[in-house]
Every structure is written in C-alpha cells, then in structure tokens.
Amino acid sequence: MAQYPGELEAPGLLRDGRSVLIRPVLVSDEEAMLDFSRRLSRRTLAQRLLGPVPRFRRELLRQFVDVDYVDHLALVAFLDDHLIGTARLIRLEGTDHAEVTFTIVDEFQGLGLGTMMLERLAAAAPAIGVYVFEADVLTTNTAMLQVFTSSGYAREMTPEGYLQHVLLRIDERAGALARSEEHTSELQ
C-alpha cells in the first residue's frame, strides 16, 4: 500500500458558499461511512449501484475504506464532521483505465460537489498512471451525466440500454484539446 497522499487534502467551496474538506479516505472513516450510507435515499442508492439495493452492511462499507491509494483511490468530502460525498477510482487490471463512481448525500446534490470531486480525482490520477475514467450511469441520472458532459475532458458516451457508458480521457493533453475545441466551436 502506498503512503497516504496528504497532498490531496484541500478545501472546496459549494455553490451555496459552504466550505467542505475533500481528502483521501482513511480506514478510520468507517463510522462516518456508515452514517453517510444511512443518509442516502433509496433513489440515490439505486442510481449509484445501478438498481434497487438493500442498505449497506458494515462488511461492504469496510471495503470502501480499505484502499491502497494506487489501484484503488477514494476521496471523501466532509462538511463539519459529516461525510457528504465520496468519489473513487478502481484501476481496471493491467490498464491505464479506472472505473469511477460518485455518491453525494441527497441534500448536497446540485451544489457542485460531484464536479469538484471529479476534478480532484482527475488531478490525482496521472500520478498513479490512470489516464482514462470509465463509468456506467443510469440514463435517468441526468445530474451525473451532466457532470461528465460539462467536465471539459475528451469524452465518449455510449448508450447501452438503460445505462450510459462514459469514457473520459483525463490526461492533460486530451483535456486541453477538448476544452480548446469547445471554445472554438462556441466562437463560430
């Protein structure tokens, strides 16, 4: 396991002006993760886990905090002492791709936290050799699809029935080219 990446700890500002702390997850966050899971609506759980699910069990939550910071990196967002959001990447074996997931407590959705956490993961990923993010998103989860669409990174979105498969190329060059192309098309 790699050393805790303390350089990833940084505050962030929600759209409503409240300040959050975003940092890598720690094993000691297990209780906060349990409380977090209890505050998620059934709708949010279904969107995150791509269908109806029971409440999280402690054994499953332990897997969320047991990371190596290289092939499995998770970020958490705290407002005061309350965990309000998670973002994680899990490297797809033998590649520079990683599956990414985001979960935000209902009352904090729509305040820019998903975008902020995507940016933080994208900034951290190249240092561990990850250059492409992949995600499967329910087509009804328009908020998460919008986060990916407006990210500015080169992207491919492929409909697969009730799912949208998203590929984001987060390397600096691809991101710069995508943003440049968007700005150019806006000027025309």
Radius of gyration: 16 Å
**Taking strands numbered 1, 2, ... along the chain, how are they ordered across the largest sheet?**
1-2-3-4-5-6-8-7
Strand content: 25-35%
Low-confidence stretches: none
Helical stretch tally: 6
Secondary structure layout:
Layout lengths: L9 E4 L5 E6 L5 H9 L3 H8 L8 H8 L6 E8 L2 E10 L5 E8 L8 H12 L7 E7 L3 H8 L4 E7 L2 E7 L2 H16 L1
Parallel strand pairs: 5-6
Antiparallel strand pairs: 1-2, 2-3, 3-4, 4-5, 6-8, 7-8
Primary descriptors:
single chain, 188 residues, alpha+beta, 8-stranded mixed beta sheet
Please describe what this structure looks like.
The protein is an alpha+beta fold. It has 6 helices and 8 strands; from the N terminus they run ββαααβββαβαββα. Strands 1-2-3-4-5-6-8-7 form an 8-stranded mixed β-sheet, with helices on both faces. The model has no long low-confidence stretch (mean pLDDT 85).
Short structural description:
The chain has helices spanning 30-38, 42-49, 58-65, 113-124, 142-149, 172-187; strands spanning 10-13, 19-24, 72-79, 82-91, 97-104, 132-138, 154-160, 163-169. With 188 residues, it is of the alpha+beta class.
